[in-house]
Amino acid sequence: MLCLKGRQMTFHRSSPRNSALSPWAAALLCVLGLVALGLPVLMSGCSDIEEDPSSGPATGANPDNLDAEHWETILINGKSAGFQCLEIHPVEHEGELAYRIDLLSEMKATQFGTSLTIRILGDAVMRPDGTPISFHETVQIGPDMQSIDGLLQGDSVQAIINIGGAEQTQEIAWHDNAIFMIGVPFSLWTQPMSLGETRALRSFELQQGMTQHQLRAKRKETVRIGNRDLELLRIEDAMQIGGIPVPTVYWADAEGTILKSSMGGIAESYQATREEALAVASTSTVDLGFGIAVPVARSLDPPHETRSVRYRVSMRGDDPSAVFPESDFQTVERIDDHTALMVVSAASTYTGSDSGALLTNESASANAEDTEPTLLITSDDPIVLRLAEKLSWSETPPQTPEEAHQAALDVVQLVHDKMQPGYGRGLVSAAEAAESLSGDCTEHAILAAAIARSIGLPARTAFGLVYVDQTFCFHMWTEVQIQGRWVPFDATLSSRGVGAAHIKLAHSSFSEQFPLIELLPTLRVLGKMDLEIVDIER
Predict the structure, then answer these.
(1) How far apart are alpha carbons 291 and 425 in whole angstroms?
(2) What is the pLDDT of residues 512-522, one digit of tens each?
């Protein structure tokens, strides 16, 4: 039985069969979210491709392809990560044929010495044309939960998103010819691709939103699946999510069943038996801390006393100047298609007292999304406000740039002093962080941004890499706007300002429909980047 805010639906399930492939990306992306700062990733987006109307879901899809139980193993950077099982079966809904989808996924990893488990449970019902009737999914990362419940009403999906105790209702436009939850597998099941064929389609994935795919059947390849060598069709997907390219490859048999997938060159899934999948899950060796850090040959110690550092960034398959942004404290000079020189200047020397020309036009004025409460930066929450009351600025907000700078320093010091460090958590709101007073860099950064907003300072989070023990680890910190500059502060490290050891990748106010799509730039650098320290100024 499915239930959404009192609305109940009952279904009658038919007998099970075997074959088919699950949409492993949802489970995998939660792991990639943890890779990208210890967070679950909720993905949404689109690309500029022109959709082919003929590639929509086939009317009267063959039920033999949609009556299945499938197990698969998931690997991250070639190491065992976990398993996923998806069942899809015909059911009856209001006297008509529908399909019930049940998802179970579990992955295990370590993060800076802390063990964590990611579990995903989902169920959904869709019509034979690929449109959803209702859906629910819960993701548990350590002790923290996030969920999405929804149903299709008219031409939009009504969704209730709950992340770490913060709930928000969203209305998401539904596109004609979109396929719910299992877009690419559904399309291939109902109409296998031929060598040289191209196909465009939209899919709506749980906790990911509407995404467009551009498929191209490139060539036949011999692929090792278990103990068998199979000749499969290689299908490349020029998928973009939130404007970020996430190249994905599928290997499918003649019936359109996907037996292997690869996402972003980082993660893979393979068809497996139940026993094989569970065995992989029990031997997970994925390290989401130092295991995915970027090593450097030259020491930067003490890193946060640096005034300026020049870095050489090299990337495989991408242009660093298109990946790393410029800001008032970071400049990027393109050398060639895969190399750039980056100069990061310390923000610790900025006090708000100078009114020199801005180095970039990043933003001369704050937007409402940087000052008002959002799904995660809950600056109006009573617990957050009680914590902010410990600062004198809550009664007398800062009026000058110098006062704003001092107030920002006081905010990050307060958060640093009150929070207890800890890993293995999912993403939570500032309210949840203020109540538990524990977490990693994400909780520190989000809570600091919320308190800063509550005392009248425009604030957002930034994320990228920070130097730790001759490596650069993925990290999140806070930015506060002072006199037109977005100035970085780090409540996790509690330095009195930020030196030149923070490399910014992007920023977020968590104001999107699916807020974590703003963290997707991490996928562009993960496992694809080399870093060299060229010059250091102290």
Answers:
(1) 18
(2) 666 667 777 88
